[in-house]
């Protein structure tokens, strides 16, 4: 776990977060700057810099991110939601620890712009 990674610090409890779920593989917490009425992030505890850093050995955890994220969304009352992974600065990635956004509670538009 890199010392200076923001999400590793949240995993280690060095920075507070509004946690929704935690197990040995994953952590989910509310986004600090929500872009929808419900907006949370699901992250692996293993530090991966982003989607393009996922290797074959990580495939189980990435699938689990989708399953657990969907279960949290249902519990949060948003059975319909958008899932976003940003890869790289041009795509809007600002935190270089893999994270899955789940957003819901309002109408979404496509393309996202
Ligand atoms: P991205 O732009 O895809 O890298 O998303 C990073 C997300 O992390 C943004 O939506 C931020 O609002 C969110 N974020 C940054 N710092 C925190 C924090 N301390 N707690 C919760 N969410 C955060």
Short note summarizing the structure:
It is built from two helices and five strands. It is of the alpha+beta class and 113 residues long.
Helix and strand arrangement:
Blueprint: H1 6-12, E1 19-22, E2 26-30, E3 38-44, H2 59-75, E4 81-84, E5 100-104
Antiparallel strand pairs: 1-2, 2-3, 3-5, 4-5
Bound molecules: adenosine monophosphate.
Please explain how this structure is put together:
The chain has 113 residues and is of the alpha+beta class. The chain has helices spanning 6-12, 59-75, and strands spanning 19-22, 26-30, 38-44, 81-84, 100-104. The chain has a five-stranded antiparallel sheet, covered by helices on one side. The longest helix is centred in the middle third of the chain and has 17 residues, at 59-75. The radius of gyration is 14 Å and the shape is globular. It starts with 5 loop residues before the first helix and ends in a 9-residue tail after the last strand. The site of adenosine monophosphate (AMP) has 12 residues, from loops.
